[in-house]
Structure formats: structure tokens, C-alpha cells
Amino acid sequence: MARISDHIEALLKQMMDQNNGYVEITRNTLADSINCVPSQITYVLSTRFTNDQGFFVESRRGGGGWIRIRRVEMDTPTRYLMHALNTIGESLSQHEAEVLIRNFLDYDVIGKLEARLLMAATSDQTLGDVAQELKDRVRMAIFKNMLTSLIVR
Q: In this predicted model, what pLDDT tens digit does every residue of 46-78 receive, in sequence order?
């Protein structure tokens, strides 16, 4: 008899195979459909759908919350972007963003066009109307979102 964790993993991978490497679920709905507790879903996601294993998992908690899982190619640029994405904290200064972008260019992770777009979107000039105490958090959100779009392209 297979363990429930194996069953959850197989089900999620089957769903992703049927949807071009992408699935969006709710933890409770999935748990109800396979008769387990939501924490078992969380366990499987955190141990079997990691960045190192070629998956990108996003979630939103609370009412109407969801979990999105994407299969990503594990080439060197993707790994580099995933690492950067996971090491950025809750805020990002313009200088920190510029350093990361220069590193991406130096290691041929992104092209000059992507670098210019990242620089423009995260500049202090772009965020001029954002309150000073929020700037670095907004910049971080924009930067992470842009990196995510580069990863799943």
C-alpha cells in the first residue's frame, strides 16, 4: 500500500502533466478529495516540490487562498534566478537590486534588455510616488515578480 504522501505527489504531478506543467489548487479542496488533512498537503509540497527538484510553488493563505505549482527547467540560469528569488528578503534597496542585476548580466543569466527593464522597474525614480518607508518593500515585490516571469517563460 502506497503512503498518502506518495499518492498526493503522484496526483499533483498527474494534474501538472495534464496542464502543461502547471496546477493551481486549494489545500483544503485537495485534502478533502483524497481524504487527508491539509497539513499532509503542506508536507508534500515542502519536501517533494522544491526549487532544487525543478518546481516553483507560490501560495496565498486565507479565504480564497490557493497554491500554484509550476515545473521549471533546471538549467543553470534558472537555478541562478531561483536562488536569487529565494534569498531576497522582505525588502530590497535600489543598490541591492542593481548588484543582483549586474551579477545576472555577468553570468549571462539575463540579456541586456531584461537588465534594462529590471533596472527601470525597480529604480527610485519609478518608485518616486511611493512612501519612503514602503519603497524597498514595493521594489522587492516588483523584482520578485519580474524574476518569476523570467523563470517560467
A: 888 877 566 788 888 776 678 999 887 656 788
- Residue at 107: amino acid letter: Y
Q: Label residue 20 left, alpha or beta by phi (over 0 means left) and psi (-120 to 50 means alpha).
A: left
Please state the φ and ψ torsions of residue 150, each to the nearest 5 degrees: -75, -35
DSSP, residue by residue, 43-104: HHHHHHS-GGGTEEEEEE-STT-EEEEEE----HHHHHHHHHHHH--S---HHHHHHHHHHH
Pull the grid cell for residue 83.
536562488
Residue 93: is it exposed, middle or buried by C-beta count within 10 angstroms (0-12/13-18/19+)?
Answer: middle
Q: Quote the CA–CA distance of 153 and 143 in Å, as a whole number.
A: 16
Distances (CA, A) of 24 to 39, 60, 85, 133: 17, 11, 20, 33
* Per-residue cell: 13: 504531478
Q: Which amino acid is at 54?
A: G
